[in-house]
Amino acid sequence: MAHYQRRGENSFLLVVDLGRDGRGRRIRRTKTVRVEDEKLLRAPRRLENYLNQHLYTFQAKVEAGEYINTKNLKFRDFVDDWYEKHAYKNLEKTTIKNYKTHLDNYILPYFGNMYLDKIKAIHVVNFLDEMSQPNASNRGKTLSDSTIYEFDKTIRVILNKAVEWQVLKEHPLKNLPRPKVKKRKMKVYNEEDVLDMIKALYKEEPVWRMFFLTSAISGMRRSEVIALQWEDINFEEQYIRLERSIPIRVDGQPHIKGTKTEEHHRVIYMPKWYMDELLKYKEYWDLERYAVGDKWKGGKYEFVFHDGYGNAYTPESATNTWGKIVKRHNLKDIRLHDLRHTMITYLLNRGESAFNVSKRAGHSDVKVTTDTYGHADEYGGKSAAKHFERFKIDDLDNNWTTNDIIIQPDKSGKR
User: I want to staple 336 with a disulfide (CB 3.0 to 4.6 A). Which of 189, 322, 330, 349 is the partner?
Assistant: First the structure.
């Protein structure tokens, strides 16, 4: 529905009504037209035709999605345009989900009703400072440096597009430095911790025992373990072929995509004892699948780890279960993702080449491995020192003396 209304002696407001959005707010696009021709203003029929022509043109652009009102445009409304005209068409579902979480829970409540062209660097500085204060999160916790950094990144992504689309003439944050992220000390399990973990896992149900053993030994990411299917397991050659991941669920269904580094596939060789355990689990899996019968919901997928009815686990369920196991067995408190760090650190500190470890971990470049894990644990430090023991010659005479040191004069008589 479109109409125009007079605003002044020679100005008219064109209005296109697009109904209401998901929040029940009326969606309208407006444009002001000024008529400078005095003769036209005194000819009602000609003026009406003139304004209707502009109105029809304006309505066509609005309905075709070609018009963005750059005047009095609120940040919230531009974000809606950004979703429809860019994000949903070009970004991964996981990326959109992360942006949406930041926008809905923190950024839009703060900036949503501000006019886009009125947002200045100081507003963002104040927002980030407020978010860095204790209990700033919706859960009453202090937000991490990396979360603050992601807030800043999300705002910049939105404003970048506003400049690109010429909604803004200049980026308000172009001279504002990015927030600093303090490098957090990596937490990993040592050998004793790993043994404690394995003992604890054998007191848990088989599906979660094998899930976390797989995570720890293969070093796969959480979403990659979730996506494993039996066709990916080669018992004869004793390896796992990794080709996909499930980072999120969309409309209740697993969103299956490639791995993080978009490699064609990754082959991860596993120890024989693990493959023997996995084969026992496969027998258990088959019996469970048979018992479910018509209640099976996995369809064509045979996920190695599922909820009992064929549904792949969500990343959140894996993380929550890991936290409960750590607490239940009083294990060293590390994140689920730190099992991956544990595998990489363990291999590097025991002399495995960075190239081989990088391939096993699925890093895009060996430099990622060396830069991120370029440190040694206590074992690694002692192991490095042992390499120099071979230079010790046992039959050397001990010519150290406790006698006073006498400085002999040189030929000139000087000491």
Answer: 322
